Amino acid sequence: MNLEDLQIVARPRNHWEALDLGLLIARRWYRLLLTSWLCFALPVFGCCWMLLPDSPLLAIFVVWWLKPVYERIPLKILSSAIFGSVPTLRGALRETRKCVFPGILSGLTYRRFSPNRSFAAPVLVLEGLDGEVRRKRLEVLQPKAGSAAFWLTLLGLHIEGFLIFGLIVGIYFFIPAELEIDWWSVIVGGSSGEQDWFVNGLMFMAMAVVAPVYVSAGFALYLNRRIELEAWDIELGFKRLAQRARAAMHVLSTLVVVGLIASFDTHAVVETDLETVLTSEFEESLRDQLVFEVDTLSDARRESRTAVENILAGADFHNETTTRFPEFLESLFEPRDEQPDQDVTWVLDFIRFVAGIAEVLLWAFVAIAVLWIAHRVRLLEKIGVLGHRGRRSKYRPTEIMGLSVTRSSLPEDVMGSAREEWRNGRCREAISLIYRASLSTLIHDFHCEFKEGDTEGDCLRKAPRSPGEVAALFRKLTRIWLLAAYAHQMPAERDFSSLCDQWSRVFDMGVSGMSNSAETG
Question: How far apart are CA 138 and CA 343, in angstroms?
Fold first, then answer.
């Protein structure tokens, strides 16, 4: 593994950036990855078709269950391509024995449903670790990337489902209307073998499309953790600095040699013996200086290496801590001298399991309690128990349903103006004036929180429930206004006069009652 040939920028990324990098990697080598995946998956699908023609559901389940086997060769291809050595398909298939067979039994049994399969596969396939060593390696790698690998698996399953549904709908759009085929009945209803195998083919196509992206994204998460832990970016930076230093040394050496040649040509008249003596002295001094610099660099490098080795051998890098929960029960289950072989770890595991369930239930209870309290507080504020109704509205609309409800737009004597409009034959305008005056009074005196977009029904629901006569009169007035405005049905003159008298009495009483209660408070 030569880091200088790395095809990506070696820098620590967050999980979502690493997943995005995986998408870019998959797009670059998608054809090769898809072909290598199909080299294993397509024969399995064909064999299931021939061996299980009457059990299409079992056949597609077998194809789906063997997905970890198909993903290993694409992963091997990525491990070489990312370092600048893109293998051919034939060359990648030669690595089948080294990639596919190690750990295949565990990968298809108890590890099959692991949500972190895409992230853990490189540890087994590329690093060749298994058993306890693999577990410890994953304990180091997974703490900051396990959640992203889980969401990657969940997202991959959903994308496969969306692709299957999209393929079904897409085929439906291409069916000519003249054929009169009930496509949805063909897909959903019935149990013919052709129909089931057609759906199996769509599912296989969806799995094939998603597989290269899934493998690449998991491999990108793995690479990102390696870059973070092993500081690949720092190592590459030091290598670039070393290359620049070597280039500078070459340039300096060349300049020194050119200067020496020029000086020798200028003083060619010097005798040969003196020239030989000066040349030997210069070479000797130059050699001594270079030896001194090399020795100095070697000593500094040895001192740095010694310091690093001493730090790595210290206790800070070999401090292991084991914590069990609950700690106060450890002393109860420690093996005694008379029973040295007694194993009670299962008891601790059971207690941890029960404690985990209890913690989940407790947090669920707390969440439900908080939601219930918030609902009760909101309900009490709505009915005015907590004084919410007593607060003035911060926003007072100027128009509701196109009707002006400001006090400046109303006459001083509302009922007198309404009666005058009624006598002049403008009955609708008279009722509209009373309705606008009612809305304005409810907004400014009863602090009803109306909005400009409210309808008559919304205003009726937001009208105060107390005092009772105000709400009853507003309901009656709303009914009269609706009949007059939309059905053009005007009330009788006797009913209109009674409405005006009741309005003057009820609203004046309601406003004075609120003023008295405010003064008492």
Answer: 27
| pLDDT digits 0-9 by tens, 125-164 | 888 888 888 888 888 887 777 788 888 888 988 998 889 8
Angle, nearest 10°, between helix axes 493-520 and 427-444? Answer: 10
CA–CA dist 297, 290 (Å, integer): 10
Residue for token pair 């913690």: 359
**Can you tell me the distance from the alpha carbon of 453 to that of 172, in angstroms, rounded to the nearest whole number?**
43
Model confidence, pTM = 0.48
Asked if the peptide bond before residue 176 counts as cis, ω within 30 degrees of 0, the response is no
The three-class DSSP label of residue 445 is: coil
Give the whole-angstrom CA distance, residue 466 versus residue 390: 12
The residues pairing with 403 across neighbouring beta strands, listed in sequence order, are 400
Residue with the two structure tokens 């995005």? 20
In the beta sheet, which residues pair with residue 400?
403
Say if residue 411 is preceded by a cis peptide, omega within 30 of 0. no
Q: Is 103 helix (H, G, I), strand (E, B) or coil?
A: coil
CA 44 and chain centroid, separation: 34
What Cα–Cα distance (Å) separates residue 394 from each residue in 209, 444, 447, 449? Answer: 56, 11, 10, 9
Cα(400)–Cα(117) distance, integer angstroms: 60
Q: Are 123 and 138 in contact (CB under 8 A)?
A: yes
Bridge partners of 399?
404
The total number of residues shown for the chain amounts to: 521
Q: Which residues contact residue 410 at a Cβ distance below 8 angstroms, ignoring those fewer than 6 apart?
A: 433, 436, 437, 440
